[in-house]
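How a chain folds remains the central question behind the approach discussed here. No coordinates are needed to read the tokens, only the vocabulary itself. For completeness, the protein is quoted in full, as a sequence line and a line of structure tokens:
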Amino acid sequence: MFAQQAPNNTNGNNNNGTVVGIRIGNTSSKVDLSSDGEAIAGYIIYNNSGNVVRSGSLSLTYHALIDVSSLPSGAYYVVAIAESGEAVADTYFKQ
């Protein structure tokens, strides 16, 4: 489901002023997603060519660890999708 969606917004601010934050962990095996505002409903990870390499739905959580140990080293674009459909993106560099 999420692999087909385009982010509605990438600045992290929704209409209610709630900030959906994304924090990227610094390990090569996990991406650490967390939100200070709305619950996270899903995520999409793109490689540097723009292809979806991982995506999934989450059970409306404020913190999730996504296993990326099988992905090769490189730059990735991580999109966290909030319960409202709001999307926040950041870059993740896997070594």
